[in-house]
């Protein structure tokens, strides 16, 4: 699918994709729950050659002007490259990093950087360019969600603004006069990848600049030394970067908060509507024979569907987040429980546009990681920079304290009846979805 199509996918399009039609992330029909499939060959795939460490300090060159600093502002200095590498010396490699005696990596993996981690024992199982710096796109919403969960009450009500609605990639539908709990904004953030929801949360956190400081401080405290956020939503900006290793750290931390897992794993919610959006009356009457534009109307609550197919295609799926911008290309981070272990897999700078989807490649990487269980090329560091303790049973995981008010959404899986939702969504304002 072309980048232009990816930029203009609407919520109605997401429902079509979920109902089984083509969408920006659509792939094979949902797998029938059952035993994990055996590794299957993938198609030949082109990917960036990274052996010479071309992205050790900065991501691949931008293809647009999204990272040009504003007039009068200097370009950010690249982040320092830690020496020794975080997580162990082998993770300083920029090509394939696999255990001794490992079988060949499955074909068809086109991400420039990827990583498989077993977070149950805190190890990195295999990777390609694990500390290479790439743009995270909307996977960085995992970090924003953690900041919001730490600092905000889930029941606090936030009123939407015109600035929220004007965000590029306003996929949740936040609009002027709408009233949203923080939990509902997190649903719009994680299910619909709404940059409008990200902006509304950032306002509640003290503004965009304050939110970026909080996100960057939290990333640093978790040991994510390749990460610098330039926007709360993941839209590209000057200095934006992360790495496969860092994104594994960020998702692992998020998974320790049951509220994050609950929201990110919700199949569908009913998102609040909003009153009529004020418009400016035309200065001149319409030409003869033409009717004046219709008066604005209110928008009723409407469904938004989780666009993470990990949840429907993979038995044991826990949570995940996809992303896409023209500069970041396709990105994804997700967790699956398999055979008593929890695996986190990260994909960054994926090049395929049609077929060979996130999910196809995730399946092959997951099967590869499970086959390498017990082997390691490095560790996921704890917040203090040391090797992390092994994860224990789910009930022993650390959960951030604070209220856990439930949203008002009806949480149901969408099925064949999902096509009937299109009229509701089309009736709402069409929303661009450029930065996912």
From TrEMBL:
InterPro entries named among the record's database cross-references: Beta-lactam/transpept-like (IPR012338), Peptidase_S11 (IPR018044), Peptidase_S11_N (IPR001967)
Organism, as annotated: Tsukamurella tyrosinosolvens
Keyword Amino-acid biosynthesis included in the entry's annotation: no
Protein name as it appears in the record: D-alanyl-D-alanine carboxypeptidase (Penicillin-binding protein 5/6)
Signal as UniProt keyword: yes
Signal peptide annotation: 1-31
Residues annotated as transmembrane: 412-430
Gene3D superfamilies: DD-peptidase/beta-lactamase superfamily
Active site: 138, 141, 193
Pro residues compositional bias, start-end: 71-81, 273-296
Binding annotation for substrate: 321
Record key words, sorted: Carboxypeptidase, Cell shape, Cell wall biogenesis/degradation, Hydrolase, Membrane, Peptidoglycan synthesis, Protease, Signal, Transmembrane, Transmembrane helix
């Amino acid at each position: 699918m072309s980048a232009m199509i990816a930029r203009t996918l609407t919520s109605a399009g997401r429902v079509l994709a979920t109902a089984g039609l083509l969408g920006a992330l659509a792939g094979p029909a949902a797998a029938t729950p059952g035993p994990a499939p055996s590794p299957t060959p993938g198609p030949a795939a082109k990917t960036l050659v990274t052996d010479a460490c071309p992205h050790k300090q900065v991501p691949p060159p931008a293809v647009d002007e999204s990272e040009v600093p504003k007039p009068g502002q200097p370009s950010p200095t690249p982040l320092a490259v830690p020496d020794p590498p975080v997580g162990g010396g082998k993770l300083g490699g920029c090509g394939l990093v696999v255990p001794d005696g490992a079988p060949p990596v499955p074909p068809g993996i086109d991400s420039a950087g990827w990583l498989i981690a077993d977070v149950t024992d805190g190890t990195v199982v295999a990777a390609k360019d694990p500390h290479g710096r790439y743009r995270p796109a909307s996977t960085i919403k995992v970090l924003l969600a953690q900041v919001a969960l730490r600092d905000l009450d889930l029941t606090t009500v936030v009123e939407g603004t015109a600035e929220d609605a004007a965000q590029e990639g306003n996929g949740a539908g936040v609009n002027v006069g709408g009233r949203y709990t923080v939990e509902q904004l997190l649903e719009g953030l994680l299910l619909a990848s709404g940059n409008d929801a990200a902006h509304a949360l950032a306002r509640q956190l003290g503004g965009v600049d304050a939110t970026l400081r909080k996100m960057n401080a939290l990333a640093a405290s978790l040991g994510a030394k390749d990460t610098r956020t330039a926007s709360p939503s993941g839209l590209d900006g000057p200095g934006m970067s992360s790495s496969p290793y860092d994104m594994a750290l960020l998702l692992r931390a998020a998974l320790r908060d049951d509220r994050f897992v609950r929201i990110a794993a919700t199949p569908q919610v009913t998102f609040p509507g909003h009153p009529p959006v004020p418009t400016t009356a035309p200065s001149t009457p319409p030409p003869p024979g033409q009717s004046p534009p219709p008066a604005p109307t209110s928008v009723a609550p409407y469904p938004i569907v989780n666009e993470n197919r990990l949840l429907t295609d993979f038995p044991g799926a826990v949570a995940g987040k996809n992303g896409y911008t023209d500069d970041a290309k396709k990105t994804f981070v997700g967790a699956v429980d398999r055979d008593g272990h929890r695996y986190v897999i990260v994909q960054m700078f994926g090049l395929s546009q049609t077929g060979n989807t996130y999910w196809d490649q995730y399946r092959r990487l997951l099967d590869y990681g499970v086959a390498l269980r017990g082997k390691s090329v490095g560790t996921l560091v704890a917040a203090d920079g040391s090797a992390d303790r092994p994860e224990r049973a789910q009930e022993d995981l650390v959960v951030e304290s604070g209220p856990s008010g439930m949203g008002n959404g009806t949480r149901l899986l969408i099925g064949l009846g999902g096509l009937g939702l299109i009229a509701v969504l089309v009736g709402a304002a069409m929303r661009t979805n450029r930065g996912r």
